[in-house]
Every structure is written in C-alpha cells, then in structure tokens.
Design goal:
2 domains; 3-stranded antiparallel β-sheet; 7 strands; mainly alpha; about 450 residues; binds acetyl coenzyme *A; 17 helices
Length: about 450
C-alpha cells in the first residue's frame, strides 16, 4: 500500500511519491523559514505575504515590472513554448490550423474550446455573417473623422461607441448575452475596418455581401468599385484567411492582458475590446508591422543594410519585426507568413522591399548581437510586405491584426470572467516617493 501523500506532494506516473512540491524560504532578517507550495511550477505571490519581520507589516511582495516572470491567470486557450517556437490554440498546432482550417472555424475553436461539428460551424458562420451590418448612425459617426485619421484611432473609438448601441452588452454574466456580443464584435470588426479605410479615401462605403466568406467579404467592402458583384481573388482570399488564423490569439500578450485587466472591472465587452485595440496600436505590439515597412523604406537598398544593422547594434534604433518577449527562437507564425508572402508575390509581383528584408534577416541571424539576445523575426517582419502587395496602405496594417485578434481577446475575456479566482486587476506598488509634506503657499515657494 502506498503511503498517504501530503497536499504538497505529487506522484510520479508509477504512483510513487516525488520529492515534496514545495519551496522553503528562509528570511535572513528573522531566521524564520517558510514552506510554500509549488503548483504547476509556480508559487503564489500571496503566499509570500506571511513572510514579515513585524506582524503589523504588510508582508513580502514580489516586484515584477512588465510581468516578466508573473503568471496573471490560469488559461486553457493558447500555448506557446517560446524556446522551441511552438504555438497551439486549444492544443492544435498553428501549422495544422493554417493549413487546414479557416479563420471562422479557428475563432470558434478559440471561443468554445473544441473544433465545431459541421452543424455548429454552419450555425456559427450564419450568426457572424448576419451581424456584419452596422447601424447607420455608426456610419455617420465614422464620417465625423478627419480624412487623414489613422484607422486604428477610428477603430478604437467606433468599437467603444458600439457599447452605446447595445445596452444588453452590460449583462456580462449572461452566457446568451456574451454570445450575442461575440457575434456582433467578430461580425462588425471587418465592416468598421473597411468603412474606416474607405472614409480615408473619400470613397462610398460598401455594405457587406453575405454570400462571401469572412475574408472575401472584407476584401469586397475594401476594394469593390463599380462591379455588380465582387469576386475576391481566391489566392488573396485564402492568404488573408491564413493571416487571420495566425493572428487570432497569442496568450497573455499586451492587448490580451489589457482586455483581461479592463474587463476585470466588469465593463461591457465593446469598451474592453476598444482598450485592447488601443494596446495593439502601439509600435511595440501590433503597430510593429507598420514600423517594419517604414524601416525597410528608410534603409532603401540592400547595400545600406550593414550600416543599418551597425546602428541597431549601437543601440541607436531597433530592428523592427525582430525579437519577442516569449519567442527566443524563430516565431512559427513568421515561417508560415514567409511562405504566404511568396504566393502573394507570385500573383501581385515581388515587393521591392523583400530583398532588403531578406538581407536584414540573413545578417541578423548570423550576427553575434542577435544570436546572443535570441532575436529572431517575429510575426510582423513579413506581414507588412504582404499587406502592401495586396494593396493595403500602411496605416491599415495594425487594423488587419485587430480584426482576427478579436476572437482571441473575447476568448481571454470570457475565460477571465468565469474564473472564480479572478478579481478586479489591481497590482501593488513599491512607493519610493516623498513622505508627508505640508502644502507650501505660493508666496513662500521662491
Ligand atoms: N532590435 C534590436 N535589439 C533588440 C530588439 C530589436 N528588435 N529587440 C530586443 N532587442 C535587444 C534589447 O535592446 C535588449 O538588449 P540589451 O540586453 O543589450 O539591453 C535585449 O535585446 C532584450 O530585449 P528586451 O527589450 O528586454 O526584450 P522584451 O522582451 O522586453 O521586448 C519586444 C520584446 C518589445 C518585442 C522587443 O523585442 C522589440 O521592441 N522588438 C521590436 C518591435 C517588434 O517587432 N514588436 C512586435 C512584437 S510581436 C507582436 O507584438 C505582435
């Protein structure tokens, strides 16, 4: 008979006890030792609170700016092993999904945890497709933007404005309401994005065509001019669908963390999604694809690449589209994207910036500076080149990221909402500012 295990002991596959799954901490200020449980390779930061010199003290905290080594949630949505370059949605490798799935099917998977049956996929597609139209007042709202407004700014504001149209969205603990807002968000993102694009061109808005696929309809709303019926090019339609699959989720990145954090105050999903889009807009996150293209244009020619890399190594600038907080290997999405790039170039003609990008990658992958820091191309390094060849202006690049990421955001938001351990996000701080000071009247300040 095996001996009983304490709560902090784990079993090996053969049933025998392993070493105790605990951490012993000795506080050298007091000489006291504390035994803290380790679960899933993690200690709970709140267990540190018992470590104190004086019982009246708050207790020990952990300091982790930018969450470099802090798990903020338990998640079952997306898995990344950054050291070997693995990305899986709900257990399915990204390579499999990119090859065999569609964006809508992948979005269903992210949101529901399982691949849909054919009836479920039909129902899901029907509902998303029948929520693509936007209220005419939203159209007027978009009209109010200046002609050169950045479409990401327009997206942030317009998605936030949706909350003023759908009051039922406040009912966040109703699964039915959440489902409805999900249809609306995933359905309307491409419409708002396309309208924002047409607005900057001063072109009339094109209404959704429910006969087309999700990416096909998006291309229709963007590019249709005088055709009675828009027929998307199948290569571009599929390329866009794969790009959408690759961008659908990426576990606890900056914008996912934002939607969880903002959503933890129990605000409606439109306001929380608007916050996530704002996080994505930054050049260190979803805005990087736009920055990559600007950088390649600034480099200008293959001959100038070594001088540019020298500037990067001197810390004067960054090689945009390189490096990642989690991937310390080639981003698996970047590999797939490089492949799609060639398919799009075969159709649309080679992007002249491609040679510069390839040369940057070649030099960087052989250079000690990048090798030592494990800096590899990330998802954004090649996407800009593809988007440009497909006819998108640079300002639309982050928008093309935001559309598919909506499914990941909503999956993360729902997981947070139904997790009984989650509360309003509220980090601690180490206060190093002034102690009490008394107000000095103006005349005494010198
Ligand atoms: N070019 C040059 N050096 C870099 C780069 C880069 N792109 N990225 C990181 N480094 C260097 C840093 O200067 C640092 O060097 P040091 O140790 O000598 O100080 C080292 O590599 C580690 O970098 P950190 O900034 O600590 O890495 P962190 O995980 O905080 O940042 C980030 C990750 C923000 C993605 C960073 O690599 C970066 O700014 N890359 C360029 C922007 C980009 O492509 N963003 C898109 C990311 S993917 C996405 O969000 C979709």
């Amino acid at each position: 008979m095996s001996s009983p295990l304490s709560a902090t002991q784990a079993r090996k596959p053969d049933g025998t006890a392993t070493a105790r799954e605990t951490l012993t901490i000795t506080d050298n200020r007091t000489g006291k030792s504390y035994e803290i449980p380790i679960t899933h390779g993690t200690i709970r930061a709140s267990d540190l609170r018992q470590v104190k010199v004086d019982p009246k003290e708050f207790g020990l905290m952990s300091y982790d700016p930018a969450f470099n080594n802090t798990a903020s949630c338990i998640s079952r949505v997306t898995y990344i092993d950054g050291d070997v370059g693995i990305l899986r949605y709900r257990g399915y490798p990204i390579e499999d999904l990119a090859e065999k799935s569609t964006y809508l099917e992948t979005a269903y998977l992210l949101l529901n945890g399982e691949l849909p049956t054919s009836a479920q996929l039909k129902d899901w597609t029907y509902h998303v497709t029948h929520h693509t139209f936007i209220h005419e007042s939203i159209k007027k709202f978009l009209d109010g933007f200046h002609y050169d407004a950045h479409p990401m700014g327009m997206m942030i504001s317009t998605i936030a404005a949706l909350s003023t149209f759908y009051h039922d969205a406040k009912d966040i603990f109703s699964p039915e309401s959440r489902k409805k807002q999900t249809y609306r968000l995933i359905g309307k993102m491409p419409t708002i994005a396309a309208f924002a694009y047409r607005h900057t061109l001063g072109m009339p808005y094109v209404y959704p065509d429910n006969d087309l696929s999700y990416p096909g309809n998006f291309l229709n709303m963007l590019f249709r001019t005088s055709e009675a019926k828009y027929r998307p090019n199948p290569t571009l339609e599929r390329a866009l669908d794969i790009l959408f699959i690759l961008h659908a989720d990426h576990e606890q990145n900056c914008s996912a963390n934002t939607i969880r954090s903002v959503g933890s105050s129990h605000v409606d999903p439109y306001s929380a999604t608007a916050a996530a889009i704002a996080a994505l807009y930054g050049p260190l996150h979803g805005g990087a694809n736009e920055e990559v293209l600007r950088m390649l244009m600034e480099i200008g020619s293959v001959q100038n690449v070594p001088a540019f890399i020298k500037r990067v190594k001197a810390g004067e600038t960054k090689l945009m589209g390189f490096g990642h907080r989690v991937y310390k290997n080639y981003d698996p999405r970047a590999r797939i994207i490089k492949h799609i790039a060639y398919q799009v170039f075969d159709l649309m003609g080679k992007n002249p910036l491609l040679e510069i990008a390839l040369e940057c990658e070649r030099i960087a992958l052989e250079d000690e500076y990048f090798i030592k820091r494990k800096l590899y191309p990330n998802v954004d390094f090649y996407t800009g080149l593809i988007y440009q060849s497909m006819g998108f202006p640079m300002t639309m690049f982050p928008v093309l990221f935001a559309i598919p990421r909506t499914s990941g955001w909503i999956a993360q938001w729902e997981e947070m909402l139904v997790d009984p351990e989650q509360k309003i996000a509220r980090p601690r701080q180490i206060y190093l500012g002034h102690d009490t000071r008394h107000y000095v009247p103006m005349e005494e300040r010198g």
